Amino acid sequence: MTLARVDRPRRRTPAVAEVSGSGRPAAQRRLRRRSRLTALAFVAPLIAYLAAFYLYPLYRNLDLSLRDYTVRSFVAGDAPFSGWDNFQKVLDDPTFGPALRHTMVFTFVSIAFQYVIGLALAVFFNRHFRLSAVLRALFLIPWLLPLIVSASTWSWMFNSESGVVNYFLHFFGVDPVGWLTSPDWALPSVIIANIWIGIPFNLVILYSGLQNIPAELYEAASLDGASAWQVFRRITFPLLRPVSAITLLLGLVYTLKVFDLIWIMTKGGPGDSSSTLATWSYQLGFGTLLPKFGPGAAVGNLLILIALVFGLLYIRVQRRQEA
Amino acid sequence: MRSRRYTLIGLVLTALMLFPVYWMLNVSLTPQQDMRKSPPDLFPLHPTFEGYRSVLDDQLPYLGTSLLIGLGTVALTLVLAAPAGYSLAKLRPRGGGALGLALLIAQMVPGIVMAMGFYGIFLDLGLLNSWWGLIIADSTIAVPFGVMIFTAFMSGIPGELIAASRIDGAGTFRTFWSIVLPVSRNALVTVSLFSFLWAWSDFVFANTLDGGGDLRPITLGIYKYIGNNNQEWNAIMATAVVASIPAAVLLVLAQRYVAAGVTAGAVKD
């Protein structure tokens, strides 16, 4: 779930032809063209793949959102073109407001907690102690588990009668909470589960960022008698800022897309109380016996648009860091 | 002395974090009649394997399908991503920058949108409910990631190594196959690991594109199990434990590749 850096500094080794200039231009041109064709041949399968399995599905989805589909016309493929009707329908839908709000709350609250907890843990594990590496590896488990596994485990833990969460709360004198069944608690429940899943990712990235901070800075600080908090505020946090920006933006792009977890735990319910744009889109398209593919696709396209805004921000930040 | 205190705190934090995993194990071993007990047993005092017995009876074929889909996705991802990564890193094709940008953007497309597009296409082509349709769909999660890992890794291979192979008379493909791929072992392991795990855990594509086929993956097996049967939580959790085994095995065997995969390229080196 990471984005790798593609652009490397373009330090070309000048081709022989470019250096010598004179000589046999025709032969050199042929050679250069051949190497260009080879370079193309190595990416051609990828380009074909992207066209067939990214661009085409995206085009189909856009087409879906601009037509008036019924189950019958979906199979027959003769749905009439309806322009922005589906988008208008979606924007006027009473679910739109809550779904957008839940998406924002889900994304920002998840990320804030994942980041703060991840950072605290990264700072903790940055010290040398026995078992530190083993424990850090164990922290990755929640992130590697299939989402259906984590989602069903949390569902059972949040069960209002027999769930272990309510059992623990009872020790603190808290009355049982209807975690997944009450409209007030459904969204917090899925957010808690999502924070748990996202902590490892934040921990690993921030930890590797900490490793790159020169040890001399910490030595100097300790000679100056700085407190742990001062060291964190004056050295660790500011030097970690670029890594933090990348972590937060990546988190943003990925959390916007979260669907499985919410769908498996609450199906966006009860009512619309935990529905986000992703679950709503799925609900419209696949969740009922009378699918509304057009509006479902329209919601999906709105979601892409939001993801792209943050995605481009991510690319900008990354580019700026490389410059 | 101080180190021991940190180890202790670390153990407590890890235990807190892994409590849900422990709970999944505990519930999977709890007898059916104790499931609704209040307070729940915090330890499997009377462990039973009935949950695991129903996994073996009902879910084994699903596990086989997931394995097939996982391995297929790994193969497809490597075949597409390794040569493309090499080209972007060393051969510098025209439009390589634009391609890199396209791959970044591809990773931002929500799976649910892809699922809807694929549904229409697969319906037209009659590919719904087929295992290889799922391999294609699942590979869309891993391919852009794979290309980026390979590109980042292969840019680090010294140009002299490749030039030497050229001087020895090897063509571009030969150089790629016998020099570049063998030194890229770490990248190969990382990409395989993640494409397998993602295909194994996929739920969105499985649930939309493979609702009624004979060969359904384990994620659907669990999902249908919860739907049809929300009483036998020991069996559901036993299935969840079994479905987590690949993740656990891979974590033990390939721990450093996992960390490498999470951080690769996301952070400026």
Automatic annotation (TrEMBL), chain A:
Membrane-traversing stretches: 37-56, 104-125, 137-157, 185-207, 243-265, 293-315
Renumbered residue ranges of the record's region Disordered: 1-27
Domain of life: Bacteria
Gene3D superfamilies: MetI-like
Bilayer topology annotation: Multi-pass membrane protein
Xref: InterPro entries: MetI-like, MetI-like_sf
Subcellular location per the Swiss-Prot or TrEMBL entry: Cell membrane
Xref: Pfam families: BPD_transp_1
Annotated ranges, domain ABC transmembrane type-1: 100-314
UniProt keyword list: Cell membrane, Membrane, Transmembrane, Transmembrane helix, Transport
Family from the record: Belongs to the binding-protein-dependent transport system permease family.
Name of the protein in its database record: Sugar ABC transporter permease
Species annotation: Streptomyces camelliae
Lineage: Bacteria, Bacillati, Actinomycetota, Actinomycetes, Kitasatosporales
TrEMBL record, chain B:
Residue span, ABC transmembrane type-1 domain: 63-254
Pfam families in the record: BPD_transp_1
Location in the cell: Cell membrane
Family named by the database record: Belongs to the binding-protein-dependent transport system permease family.
Species per Swiss-Prot/TrEMBL record: Streptomyces camelliae
Keyword flag Hydrolase: no
Main location: membrane
Protein's membrane topology: Multi-pass membrane protein
Protein name in UniProt: Carbohydrate ABC transporter permease
Xref: SUPFAM superfamilies: MetI-like (SSF161098)
Domain of life, source organism: Bacteria
PANTHER family: INNER MEMBRANE ABC TRANSPORTER PERMEASE PROTEIN YCJP, MALTOSE TRANSPORT SYSTEM PERMEASE-RELATED
Bilayer-spanning residue ranges: 7-25, 62-86, 98-119, 131-154, 175-200, 233-254
Keywords, in A-Z order: Cell membrane, Membrane, Transmembrane, Transmembrane helix, Transport
CDD domains membership: TM_PBP2
